[in-house]
User: Fold this.
Amino acid sequence: MGLEATCRVQHGEHTGTGRAQLETDTLRFKGENFRLAIPLRDIQKLSVRSGRLEVGFGATTAVFHLGDQAMRWAEKIRSPPSVLDKLGVKTDMAIALAGTPDTALVEQIRARTPHVGKPRAGTELAFLFAGAVRDLGRLESLKKAIAPAGAIWVVWPKGRPELKEDHVRAEARDIGLVDVKVASVSAALSGLKLMIPRAKR
Assistant:
């Protein structure tokens, strides 16, 4: 979701100041004295009082002192964006698919836009479904197909040592692409968004 703030957090016997981050599926805090990682699915209670975001999970509560940002954080946690919103898939957008697509994700994409097909010049958003490092070789042709301000999402299975985020990032760098966003596409899939650097568009 992309929210970050420096704040004070109280959790049990711990109190400290550090960096709070609201990610796609986790609320995190990294402080000098302690750290927290709260999966959003585990949050049972959520309230805002005088600039304090009170997060109940399990048998405990963490209090994030976010000031006037507290209500915004609460709203984001209560109404997280859909996977298509996270990936930037808009109504009637031209989408290109490469590799062996994930059926569930593609069904969602087709429900939002009918313009889904093979890569072609001017593509706004492309998805490369990769299962091995060798599949990343298709990035070169996708780079040529996307519009100057277009993007490529590389999507791959989580937890496989033969294909990790570092492999994707390295291949992208070698062909002149930069990574701008990482996302958990599903419980089984990770994604990295790549674009042409602004200076070279």
User: Anything to note?
Assistant: Residues 47 and 54 are 5 Å apart (CA to CA). The longest strand covers residues 146-157. The chain has five helices and 13 strands.
